[in-house]
Amino acid sequence: MRASRKSEADLISNLPGSIIENILGCLPLRDAVRTSILSREWRYKWVTCPYLVFDFWFDQMFLGNHKLETLVYTILKFHQGPLLKFALQAPDFQSSPDIDRWIDLLPNDNIQDFTLHISRGDNHRLPSQLFAFHQLRNLKLYKCAFDPPSTFRGFNKLVNLDLQDVVFAPETFGNFVSCCTSLERLRLMECSSLDCIEIDAPKLKFFEFHGVFRSISFKHSPLLAEVLISFSSMDFVREDRFSFDLIKSLSCLPELEDLHLQAYVLEGLAEYGAPKKLPVTLKTLKTLHLSDMYFEKIDEISCALCLIRSSPSLQKLEITAFTFDVVEAVAEFLRSQKSSDCSLTHLKTVNMQLFSGAESEMEFVKYLLASATALEEMAISPHAGNVSDGGESILNKLKQFPRASPRAEIVNSEKK
């Protein structure tokens, strides 16, 4: 039996090194290190693990009474071979001089995926060593201060850039992005130092922003297809023509197909006057998602209709309602809208979320049903806090509304 067990152990131990590294790479770091107890042959195999992730699970299940700083340093010192991924995202992690020493131990000719997540305290100023990682494909930074050296010429292989609460020098960000010539995905979350944003990224396909900015321009982003923008305050509305300038910038994107906007943008656009159609057209847009839309404000409803009418290729519309009070003037405004003014010939799917059945919401749906000649599905997701019967009574009322499309089906998305 001992011979049989030894044979089985040898079968695993004698696998090619690349396969063992792949196996270890699929394990959490805690379990990869624990393979050292399997046998004498496995005692040091973990030191070749290509992925080192110090995260919540490592903290909860492996640290115990050990200090994170000591373990990270020891593991890096013993590590051998290529290191493709390094992530520091343990809970309550603070800026520390140890971070720079760890980064200095990383092999800068291998790292493809780097994450540094500072949970609390001051932002960590990134050391110059980080900018020597020329093989980077994924970079995620949280609560850091970003100041590349003057000799930095970009991460030429970087595909995904995710920044949250990262501080830039005002003139640094645009130059940095333009130097990352392979960038495809860019997320900027609460980066308060960014005011006037200029995106020059020829391969960029996805852009997400949450925070506040004064202006944004997409200087050279011919492949950008999906844009998500939400705002953390109303400060930007004080800027004249802010929302219209934003829409104007978006209209210059030749491949834009998917647009998510928070309702604050609608409030800003209302300052422009919200005509039936914008003077610029979002001619390639296929999906429009408007979140936190107040159905109590005529200006917001008018601007939403303006955006919809200015998107001649629109196929999918998603709206997250935000309704507390019944305002008769809004419902009256929607009743005055003529469906013949705008026939939505490509709109196939509408999804209304947090639908409470307020009169203004009902009239908005009635307008869409009467205008969308190609509509296939109107999906309603009832607001659980405002609707008592699961939305059945609302659905029954909606089914009585006239429809421009004979194929249009009205469904409760909670019961699909």
Radius of gyration, in angstroms, nearest whole number: 27 Å
Major sheet: size, sense and barrel closure? 14 strands, parallel
Strand order of the largest sheet: 1-2-3-5-7-9-11-13-14-15-16-17-18-19
β-strand percent reads: 15-25%
Can you count the helices?
A: 13
**Helix fraction?**
25-40%
Coarse shape: elongated
Oligomeric state of this protein:
single chain
Any chance you could write out the topology, listing elements then pairs?
Layout: H1 2-13, H2 17-25, H3 29-34, E1 51-54, H4 56-63, H5 68-78, E2 85-88, H6 97-105, E3 113-117, E4 124-125, E5 138-142, E6 144-146, E7 160-164, E8 167-168, H7 172-179, E9 185-189, E10 196-200, E11 206-211, E12 215-220, E13 226-231, H8 242-251, E14 258-262, H9 263-270, E15 287-294, H10 298-309, E16 316-322, H11 328-335, E17 349-355, H12 359-371, E18 377-382, H13 392-398, E19 409-412
Parallel strand pairs: 1-2, 2-3, 3-5, 4-6, 5-7, 6-8, 7-9, 9-11, 10-12, 11-13, 13-14, 14-15, 15-16, 16-17, 17-18, 18-19
Helix pairs in contact: 5-6, 9-10, 11-12
What does this 3D model show about the protein?
- The protein has 416 residues and is α/β, with parallel strands linked by helices.
- Helix content is 29%, strand content 23%.
- It contains 13 helices and 19 strands.
- The strands form three sheets. Strands 1-2-3-5-7-9-11-13-14-15-16-17-18-19 form a 14-stranded parallel β-sheet. Strands 4-6-8 form a three-stranded parallel β-sheet, with no helix packed on it. Strands 10-12 form a two-stranded parallel sheet.
- The longest helix is centred in the C-terminal third of the chain and has 13 residues.
- The protein starts with a helix and ends with a strand.
- The relative contact order is 0.05.
